[in-house]
Design the sequence.
């Protein structure tokens, strides 16, 4: 049998050119009704009015590597503010000849994160690897053992932002889980303590916690004891984020069917075994998306330390902008910083989507 | 006879011991902190208590809803700050809801371009810290906008310059108060009509176009009053006098930047909530509604919206609370909200504990009252279920 015989007897019509290809796509997705056609035209007009001038400002008339004087004479964007001040924006007041340490610590952190993101590396070695990594990072940042000591008040720029976020997340997550378990506890005293804590923290803005850490907390301590300012802000961020994590985890705990709790009990597992081996692995998995949402918020919220005068990357940018030489290029500096934050947050959220898919064991 | 179980093996007794230990720990730490604080305050001779609220503040506030001058007390300054917070939150919540719903629906549009554009807006706004956005808008006002002399004039009667946004408003006229009264009366009528229509729908199954009639009433009644007063059309148009505008209504750059940042940031989250809420209504519901012969408008009003709102409202509430809490970032761009006034007060009086306690108490009040209201509303929505 020759297949061509059967086809020859039928007539094949190609679909009309208006239904396939580019034209078909445009018809189906942009001009499928009168209302949509009007919307498309309006959107195109809006884009036409905004994109070309912005493009011209950002790429055609702009300068990328020049001094401030050259920037005064141009119409477009002065991106030079970032490369010219990169050292200060990224490392702040860290002593200039020691900034390689700050840089190395950041590279180390990025490699650890990169190593961890692959699920093949999720094993028992991970914990010691991170511990070693953090010790080395701490040594690089603080000094000692042959390196000159750098006080934490000099830690600034991107390393400070990353450190506050990383430890904020790492500290808040277990604390949040404990609070969620406490809130679901059958012991009335524990339960009410946790409820009060969670509702109190969630009712106030992060700024008030940061104020508490910066101006109120020193009054709590006995005379002569002084806790470092960065550490106090770090603790405030952890305590704040933990309350939000707790609420998310509580949602996960509530979503686990009662049968799972009863099954764990009937196996003779005690409370901590039941939670660790049966309930939490399921509960934490279903709340991955909202948890990552909270962690992204925590990352963005570290920028609030600007208000209590810690020099994170946003504050160093602002200091650069207050330099008379570079005054007036705020849009460029803030847009570059926005891109930086965007990349970090977007990476986190897309990784969470990937993880959610990989851990999905349902049917 | 079973031998007596030692108390550490008895779950009931163990639970009691455990709780007592936890409480002792918490109260012990609280006591230590309290006594430390007492000692510190005595040593630094800081008077405790809220007596300082009666003292003269001696600082000015950029803008205020109530009359305020530096001769007034700290208490009044804090009140002005709290009202500023309420003002920006209230306007922000309304604008955020409108913009968020609009973008959320646009995200679901079958128009590829519109849907993509709203997706880009949502991703960009969600992934940039709101504080950075505030700084950006504030810088735009101060650096990109010209001086009043070269003010941008995008719409007739609307001026944009580095002194803020200046708008033409209708000149004050005797008709305005009766018009507001007429509008309120129309709202009351609308509410009564909705109740009547609901009862009639339940009894007879006949529906009544409540929304259309209500909207018509709330436009028509004020318009009638306006006509009855001889249709005053005089506008108070801002005009350039010397270096600044006079007349019209002006919004300061601080307020505008705060509002822009908060509204854009929060509406991205609201848009995602609205999208998820609408998508949560299963297709079968819409098909079932259409197959019993409802018109598209009725499907939306009686089937899709009631179910979508039930999913949307709880997370929407928390976004509104987030906006209120984020309005405290005003301090970073110099808008005199409650936190910023409280911070100035703390710096001047040294009453750190009272100041921070006031901040927390005020925000707790906002949060708790909003969530009480929203829980009530949520319960009402949930009761619709049969």
Sequence:
């Amino acid at each position: 049998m020759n297949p061509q015989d059967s086809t020859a007897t039928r007539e094949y019509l190609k679909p009309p050119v208006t239904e396939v290809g580019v034209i078909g796509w445009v018809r189906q997705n942009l001009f499928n009704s009168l209302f949509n056609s009007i919307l498309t035209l309006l959107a195109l007009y809006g884009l036409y009015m905004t994109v070309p001038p912005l493009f011209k400002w950002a790429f055609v008339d702009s300068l990328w590597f020049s001094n401030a004087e050259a920037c005064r004479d141009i119409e477009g964007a002065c991106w030079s503010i970032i490369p010219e001040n990169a050292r200060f924006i990224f490392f702040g007041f860290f002593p200039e000849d020691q900034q390689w340490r700050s840089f190395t610590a950041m590279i180390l952190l990025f490699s650890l994160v990169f190593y961890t993101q692959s699920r093949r590396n999720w094993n028992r070695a991970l914990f010691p690897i991170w511990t070693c990594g953090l010790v080395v990072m701490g040594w690089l940042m603080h000094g000692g053992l042959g390196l000159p000591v750098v006080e934490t008040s000099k830690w600034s720029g991107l390393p400070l932002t990353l450190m506050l976020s990383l430890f904020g997340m790492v500290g808040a997550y277990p604390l949040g889980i404990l609070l969620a378990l406490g809130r679901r506890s059958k012991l009335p005293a524990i339960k009410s303590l946790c409820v009060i804590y969670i509702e109190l923290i969630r009712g106030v803005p992060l700024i008030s916690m940061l104020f508490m850490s910066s101006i109120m907390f020193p009054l709590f301590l006995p005379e002569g004891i002084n806790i470092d300012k960065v550490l106090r802000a770090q603790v405030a961020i952890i305590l704040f984020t933990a309350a939000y994590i707790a609420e998310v985890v509580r949602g996960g705990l509530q979503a686990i069917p009662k049968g799972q709790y009863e099954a764990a009990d009937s196996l003779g597992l005690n409370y901590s075994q039941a939670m660790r081996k049966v309930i939490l692995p399921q509960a934490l998995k279903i709340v991955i998306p909202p948890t990552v949402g909270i962690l992204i918020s925590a990352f963005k919220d570290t920028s609030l330390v600007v208000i209590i005068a810690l020099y994170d990357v946003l504050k160093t940018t602002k200091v650069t902008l207050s330099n008379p030489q570079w005054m007036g290029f705020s849009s460029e500096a803030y847009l570059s910083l926005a891109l930086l934050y965007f990349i970090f947050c977007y990476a986190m959220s897309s990784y969470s989507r990937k993880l959610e898919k990989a851990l999905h064991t349902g049917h | 006879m079973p031998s007596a179980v030692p108390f550490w093996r008895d779950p009931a007794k163990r639970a009691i011991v455990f709780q007592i230990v936890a409480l002792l720990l918490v109260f012990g730490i609280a006591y230590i902190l309290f006594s430390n604080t007492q000692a510190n305050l005595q040593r630094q001779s800081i008077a405790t208590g809220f007596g300082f609220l009666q003292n003269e503040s001696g600082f000015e506030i950029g803008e205020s809803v109530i009359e305020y001058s530096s001769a007034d007390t700290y208490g009044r300054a804090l009140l002005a700050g709290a009202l500023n917070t309420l003002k920006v939150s209230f306007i922000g919540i309304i604008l955020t809801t409108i913009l968020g719903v609009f973008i959320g629906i646009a995200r679901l549009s079958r128009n590829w371009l519109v849907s993509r554009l709203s997706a880009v807006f949502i991703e960009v706004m969600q992934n940039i810290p709101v504080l950075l956005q505030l700084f950006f808008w504030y810088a735009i006002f101060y650096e990109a906008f010209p001086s009043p002399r070269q003010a941008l004039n995008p719409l007739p009667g609307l001026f944009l310059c580095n002194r803020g946004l200046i708008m033409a408003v209708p000149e004050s006229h005797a008709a305005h108060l009766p018009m507001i009264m007429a509008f309120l009366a129309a709202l009351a009528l609308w509410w009564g009509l909705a109740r009547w229509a609901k009862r009639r729908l339940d009894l007879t199954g006949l529906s009544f176009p409540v929304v259309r009639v209500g909207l018509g009433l709330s436009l028509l009644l004020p318009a009638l009053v306006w006509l009855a007063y001889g249709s005053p059309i005089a506008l108070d148009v801002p005009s350039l006098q010397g270096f600044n505008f006079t007349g019209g209504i002006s919004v300061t750059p601080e307020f505008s930047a705060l509002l822009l940042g908060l509204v854009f940031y929060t509406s991205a989250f609201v848009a995602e909530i609205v999208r998820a809420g609408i998508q949560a209504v299963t297709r079968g519901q819409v098909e079932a509604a259409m197959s019993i012969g409802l018109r598209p408008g009725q499907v939306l009003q009686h089937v899709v919206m009631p179910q979508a709102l039930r999913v949307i409202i709880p997370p929407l509430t928390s976004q509104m609370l987030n906006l209120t809490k984020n309005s405290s970032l005003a301090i970073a761009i110099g808008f005199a909200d409650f936190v910023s006034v409280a911070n100035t007060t703390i710096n001047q009086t040294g009453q750190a504990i009272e100041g921070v306690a006031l901040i927390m108490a005020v925000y707790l009040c906002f949060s708790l009252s909003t969530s009480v209201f929203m829980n009530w509303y949520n319960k009402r929505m949930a009761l619709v279920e049969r």
Q: What stands out?
A: Chain A is about 70% helix and 0% strand. The domain at 159-316 of chain A is CATH 1.10.3720.10 (MetI-like fold). Residues 330-359 of chain A form the longest helix (30 residues). The CA atoms of residues 63 and 91 of chain A lie 24 Å apart.
